[in-house]
Amino acid sequence: MEFESDPDLELALRSLDRWDTSPPIELVAVRELGQSMLATVFVPDGKLEILERLITRYRDEETAKGQPKNKKLIESVAEIRHAAIRSFWTDDPELFPDVQKPSWWEVWLRVGQDRDEITATFESYAASIGIRMQKRRIKFSDRTVLLVLATREQMSQSVELLDCIAELRLAKDHPEFFMDQRPSEQAEWVDDLLDRVEGPQGQTAAVCLLDTGVNNGHPLLRDALSTENLLACDPEWGGNDDRSHGTEMAGLCLWGDLTRQLATSGPVTIEHSLESVKILPPPDLGQNDPELYGHVTQDAIAQIEAQEPHRQRVYSMAVSTPDYRDRGKPSSWSAAVDDAACGSKDEQPRLVVLAAGNVRRENWHLYPDRNDVDQVHDPGQAWNALTVGATTEKVDFDTEGFPGWTPLARPGGLGPSSTTSVTWASDWPNKPDLVLEGGNGIREANGTVADTDDSLLLLTTHSHPTERLLTTMGDTSAATAQAARMAARLMARYPDFWPETVRGLLVHSAEWTQEMKTATVGKPAGHRTRLLLRRYGYGVPDLERASWSASNLLTLVAQDSLQPFEKRDGRVATKDLGLHALPWPRAELSSLGSETVEVRVTLSYFIEPNPARRGWKYRHRYASHGLRFAIKAAAEELEDFRARVSKDAQSEERRGRTPKDPGWEIGPTHRNRGSIHSDWWTGAAADLAERGYLAVFPVGGWWKERSQLQQMPVRYSLIVTVKTPETTLDIYTPVANQIGVEVPL
User: Fold this and answer.
1) Which of these, 55, 68, 459, 607, could form a disulfide with 259 (CB 3.0-4.6 Å)?
2) Is 0.85 surpassed by the pTM of this model?
3) Cα–Cα distance between 271 and 258 in angstroms, integer?
4) Both 478 and 572 in a single domain?
5) Domain tally, the chain
């Protein structure tokens, strides 16, 4: 039976869980629906009268204080009804499976007075109606958990089946299930996925892999990667993959983690294509000389662009060198990446996504301390690139095969493979910029050995599809592939966005997990912020946050340019100030008064590199220029704001001091590193209503030393999000009306 409370009231749950009877009346699941609480209760045959007695005693009897008996329970109940299949669903309501399409369910069975009898009853009825079950079981004190493949219709057609169930959830993504399949069974799953694919159509945005080549005969890659776009830096190498890495990366760049795609039953949309340029020779030819990696990277970019010059693309490169000599300083390789990204030679900016590099597997037993001293690998220090580290949510693994082992990383924590920039000097960028799923490891009870189980990795395409179609992959390579996929999907959705904008949107959408915040609790505020940025970057990005504005989450994007320097009265001075009047709804924000709102700002731009170590007198002379942002204070006049910004720019340039800017989560001291800056301010809505101007202004770089370069304009992308409480008002619509947003039908 299902009991529903009145809005904003809680059910007296203890009164519904009656283990004083035999067999017991059992509270099996509790969930929320809007403002109401719903409780699903198993009532054995012949025990309904016990619940009836609770109601009649409320009607007929009083306590010593003159109150109806069972008042708290009965007066909180708005409705009682027979439980349906949805009554057992305790997962996200949006994930509730379709009626007729098979899905993997995580079934939590009651234990009752006889665990084995209830499990056997469920298995018997499930088998009789064609429900497929996995053999493995997890036993808790009052629940037995198993996985079944069934439609919603199958799950709800037997009352006897429902009587065994306590909860239903969507099965977690587990690559191990698909890895255990025979090659013929893997092919069936792949064929089912291909039957559900929609797109891409025509010339689309692409992820260009700079890797070990790709074997594009794989059925999951064939339609997305044509042989014409399968190149190599040296034509004698061939574009095929002879090291496995590139094909595995290609699967994640196109599909993401295939576990989820294969386990679901609905349509799957592919929004982008693939390209590949092989930058590593076959194993029998040896490695590229280290000093040539920068040239190889630029040559690979030139080759693919000569073939498809006008295509939108994001470059994904998970090849790096574990050389710690640079310690965040530019190398020839990282500078070559920066040069290609800014388009200094051809005025064609590019988005390059790099792997942060991995902690060696034999050092995983030192997690997490080792990660703070193992530095991001070259060329991951590139200012203009989007450098990606690893986090993980994967903690479920085969405990029968690995008894007594535990996951290395907690859910939402730093991936065991992820390198950081914790030990770098403060002048250099915060790297990685983002972290994404890179898998986990497991540790023996004695704590000395770490290993990896397939269930803790990501499922992707096997490099030899004639042998098997699926394999697993992890580490910062897997995380990089997923970030490149996100970027390409953004490019496909917004073809007018610059590479600087796509990069900015991904950083803008990122958030630190609760585990990341917890791991730095107890540190001094400034040190804690630095640790967060240099371990996790800005956190985990979210494609939907990057793509859409909701009614209470308004995102504004500006693509603009300014001229940073000019020669004036015989000296070089800063020139332009980008002053943006923010079109947020002042009246609506003012009406919220002291209610808390949040505004997030991200500034993304590309610098031209100068990696020569000349002992520059001023800081940051690797970069051609720098840009900063500031928001007007509520009580500040516009002209006073302009004067303050000018003074702040001079202060940072001349004395290396970062101006104070109170009220921000990160603050300018830590955010003004590299060429992307993101921060968020939290305060009263009425205060924000009066902060309607944002300035983008230049600070010094090596261009100031070159008089012929002082007239060059620079591009920047500015992203601003205002977030209000969900239930208060719609801020999106009035702004859309102000700036004339076209709504596609």
Assistant:
1) 459
2) no
3) 16
4) no
5) 4
